[in-house]
Q: What sequence folds into this?
């Protein structure tokens, strides 16, 4: 074998044949690290020196068995996933800090670790005592089949997964995992890529689904390399506002189900619970049904219809440029609707303040 030396940026993954002080791709200084990659030596006849006992199979020779999905105990989550968790799949769950990712996954682990089923929960951010404290708060039943581990070593975690053979593995989070085989601190491009590759490879070979928690940047994107979203089978995003208890789970990518379904949850003091009637979640409660400036509309999210209340207020403006305030609706679409109303309905909205919620 021949060993090839290259220099890879630990921030963006840029590869260079020689060392550079500043990465030309992301512009960060002192991020290029030396990486040795081995290649097979090719003989003059074009064959490899080492024989690899791998042969491709014809499509009709491959035996396919319909794999049963694992139910999570949350019907809203199962709907978003397309009927449950597929065995051997890799799932990435992202969301803002404090939105409830760890709480949701811990409740899933507690619900699925019943009978002889074992779930392995690996945390790189909390200790076993902290996880135990939260588990006692959100789950009153005694459970002995949930295995907890607080460790950040990627290679050691892979060995423990292969040894315990659980039905589900939860990694919280992928940005905290690091290995001595890759240079750079935890959260760097090399460490995240290496950890995700090892966990996905283990999931495919053992048939054990792996759920990885991903941090997000201030722009709302998943932190780390973009290749992380391409490597996994499913990308879920948990979103919500801090001053409300409503949490919405969306699927941004799903190889085994739809991508337009949403799950509605509510964050309470005893954990995350499913909303019983999410179809009427976006309605205000009025004693009088005939409220001026309010109308009920219907919006489709996947296969579910939501009733949405639209509130509008139009008042005379005392400033040269009237205000247009939109909450929950596209601002440019609101301007378009106002222009159509003024042009074709002869409604003088040019001197009015418009508020739409």
A:
């Amino acid at each position: 074998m021949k060993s090839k030396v290259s220099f890879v940026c630990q921030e963006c993954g840029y590869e260079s044949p020689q060392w550079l002080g500043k990465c030309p791709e992301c512009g960060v200084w002192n991020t290029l690290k030396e990486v040795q990659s081995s290649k097979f030596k090719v003989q003059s006849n074009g064959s490899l020196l080492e024989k690899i006992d791998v042969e491709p199979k014809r499509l009709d020779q491959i035996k396919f068995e319909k794999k049963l999905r694992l139910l999570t105990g949350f019907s809203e989550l199962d709907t978003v996933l397309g009927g449950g968790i597929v065995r051997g799949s890799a799932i990435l769950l992202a969301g803002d800090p404090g939105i409830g990712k760890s709480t949701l996954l811990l409740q899933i682990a507690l619900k699925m670790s019943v009978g002889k089923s074992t779930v392995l929960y690996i945390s790189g951010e909390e200790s076993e005592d902290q996880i135990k404290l939260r588990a006692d708060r959100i789950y009153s039943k005694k459970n002995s089949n949930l295995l907890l581990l607080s460790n950040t070593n990627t290679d050691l975690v892979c060995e423990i997964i292969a040894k315990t053979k659980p039905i589900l593995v939860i990694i919280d989070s992928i940005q905290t995992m690091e290995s001595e085989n890759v240079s750079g601190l935890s959260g760097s491009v090399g460490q995240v890529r290496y950890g995700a590759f090892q966990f996905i490879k283990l999931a495919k070979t053992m048939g054990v689904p792996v759920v990885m928690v991903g941090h997000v940047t201030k722009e709302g994107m998943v932190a780390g390399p973009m290749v992380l979203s391409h490597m996994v089978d499913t990308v879920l995003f948990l979103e919500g506002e801090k001053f409300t208890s409503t949490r919405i789970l969306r699927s941004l990518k799903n190889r085994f189900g739809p991508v337009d379904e949403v799950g509605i949850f509510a964050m309470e003091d005893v954990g995350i619970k499913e909303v019983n009637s999410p179809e009427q979640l976006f309605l205000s409660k009025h004693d009088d049904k005939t409220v001026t400036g309010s109308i009920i509309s219907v919006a489709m999210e996947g296969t579910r219809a939501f009733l949405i209340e639209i509130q509008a207020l139009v008042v005379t403006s005392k400033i040269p440029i009237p205000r247009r305030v939109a909450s929950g609706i596209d601002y440019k679409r609101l301007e378009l609707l106002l222009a159509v109303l003024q042009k074709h309905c002869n409604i003088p909205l040019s001197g009015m303040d418009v508020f739409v919620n």
Notes: Residues 38-44, 46-51 have pLDDT under 50 and may be disordered. Residues 340 and 346 are 9 Å apart (CA to CA).
